[in-house]
């Protein structure tokens, strides 16, 4: 048995245009899966680049535009995956947003906008994926959270972001238990400090050298270092694994 082989599997990745989502989408293809890349319309060019990298691996790719805050968009996307590629086996819910604002001046609109993507969007994605996986009693769902759901990032005021990622972790564990006897495994990856476009924002970029020094492995991760954990959780190598928060942070939370 080739434990990490995804040949013949069909995957769906949200936020697949850049950063961790793009790396994982291409990594799943390298492991043998055909991959549907989902993202917002203004990310179309980036999604197309991801799809081109997937086809260069000899796998099929499908680009789907939509918004994870809209149930209809997700339902339509999953229907397109099943129609164009085949029955969905693997889902990676990576789409997310971030910004910083002191708690005392954080507006309700800012709070709701971030939660709509980071928490509600993950739930709606899981719901749409589960709707086709549960009747077949098989499938692997992987949500992407952050170490910010476990620790508070020193010097960055982002109570809404941190709490939304904690919500993703608990959402994952709750779904894992609801669906554990129905053939669906649900796990979460919590990346540590990683070079992505999201970390180009000034409030994080200015702290990256401090975070590097505070990481026991003394470096920041590349987005490609999230591929291995995702392939593990998507594959038969993790057939008895559900409800875990796989922290990939170079040891940061150990201090």
Brief digest:
With 255 residues, the protein is α/β, with parallel strands linked by helices.
- Proportion of helical residues: 40-55%
Supply the CATH architecture: 3-Layer(aba) Sandwich
| Uncertain segments | none
What is the spatial order of strands in the main beta sheet? 3-2-1-4-5-6-9
- Radius of gyration, in Å, reads 17 Å
- Please indicate the percent range of residues in DSSP E strands (runs of 2 or more): 15-25%
Q: Calculate the terminal CA-CA distance, rounded to whole Å.
A: 38 Å
CATH homology-level superfamily: NAD(P)-binding Rossmann-like Domain
CATH topology: Rossmann fold
Tally of contiguous helical segments: 8
* Helix/strand order: EHEHEHEHEHEEHHEHE
Globally, the shape reads: globular
Supply the CATH class. Alpha Beta
The chain-level structural class is: alpha/beta
How many discrete structural domains?
Answer: 1
- Overall average pLDDT: 95
In total, how many beta strands? 9
Any chance you could write out the topology, listing elements then pairs?
Elements: E1 10-14, H1 19-30, E2 34-39, H2 44-56, E3 61-65, H3 71-84, E4 90-93, H4 108-133, E5 139-144, H5 159-179, E6 184-191, E7 194-195, H6 202-205, H7 208-214, E8 221-222, H8 227-234, E9 245-248
Tell me what you see in this structure.
The chain contains 8 helices and 9 strands. It is α/β, with parallel strands linked by helices and 255 residues long. It has one domain: NAD(P)-binding Rossmann-like Domain (Rossmann fold, 3-Layer(aba) Sandwich). The chain has a 7-stranded parallel sheet, with helices on both faces. A two-stranded parallel ribbon has the order 7-8. The relative contact order is 0.15.
């Amino acid at each position: 048995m080739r434990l990490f082989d995804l040949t013949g599997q069909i995957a769906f990745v949200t936020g697949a245009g850049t950063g961790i989502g793009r790396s994982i989408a291409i990594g799943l293809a390298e492991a043998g899966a055909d991959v549907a890349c989902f993202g917002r319309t203004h990310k179309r060019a980036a999604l197309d680049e991801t799809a081109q990298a997937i086809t260069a691996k000899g796998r099929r790719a499908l680009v789907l535009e939509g918004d994870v805050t809209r149930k209809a968009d997700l339902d339509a996307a999953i229907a397109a995956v099943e129609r164009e590629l085949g029955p969905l086996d693997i889902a990676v819910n990576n789409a997310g947003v971030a910004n910083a604002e002191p708690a005392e001046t954080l507006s309700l609109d800012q709070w709701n906008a971030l939660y709509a993507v980071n928490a509600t969007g993950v739930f709606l994605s899981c719901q749409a994926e589960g709707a086709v996986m549960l009747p077949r009693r098989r499938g692997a769902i992987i949500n992407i959270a952050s170490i910010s759901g476990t620790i508070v990032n020193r010097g960055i005021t982002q109570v809404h972001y941190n709490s939304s990622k904690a919500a993703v972790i608990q959402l994952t564990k709750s779904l894992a238990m609801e669906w554990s006897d129905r053939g669906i495994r649900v796990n979460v990856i919590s990346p540590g400090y990683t070079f992505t476009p999201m970390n180009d924002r000034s409030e994080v970029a200015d702290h990256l050298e401090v975070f590097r020094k505070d990481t026991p492995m003394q470096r920041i991760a590349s987005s490609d270092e999230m591929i291995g954990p995702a392939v593990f959780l998507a594959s038969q190598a993790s057939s008895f694994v559900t409800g875990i928060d796989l922290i990939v942070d170079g040891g940061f939370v150990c201090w």
